[in-house]
Amino acid sequence: MRETRARGRTAANNATVRTVFVIGPDKKIKVTLSYPMSTGRNFDEVLRVLDSIQLTSAHKVSTPVNWKPGDDVIISGTVSDEEAKQKYPNGWRAPKPYIRIVSQPS
């Protein structure tokens, strides 16, 4: 029965989805990126996501939209102001009370 349904299908008309999985050392999926068959995968985005995952796992920060390595980051909300003062003695910018922006830590 399956053979009947598959008859006539080709790579050109079989609407596959291509997915990229990033799996961390803890064996948990960190990111999935899905693309239609007609769209190539964005390798620059995969590298950007890997850089962000490595940075945010090593430091208590988040990366904002369109972040690229070397851009400013956001101090995680779980970090108290006292802890942030110790970690970032030069201070931070706070456009909103809940957003504290600092240079990317190294």
Describe this structure in words.
This protein has 106 residues and is of the alpha+beta class. The protein has a single domain (2-102), classed as Antioxidant, Horf6, Chain A, domain 2. It has three helices and six strands; from the N terminus they run αββαββαββ. The strands form two sheets. A four-stranded antiparallel β-sheet has the order 3-4-6-5. The longest helix is centred in the middle third of the chain and has 16 residues, at 43-58.
What is the H/E order?
HEEHEEHEE
Overall body shape: elongated
CATH topology: Antioxidant, Horf6, Chain A, domain 2
Distance between the termini: 58 Å
Residues in helix, %? 25-40%
DSSP strand content: 25-35%
Give me the CATH architecture, please. Answer: 2-Layer Sandwich
Mean pLDDT across every amino acid position: 89
* Number of helical stretches of at least 4 residues: 3
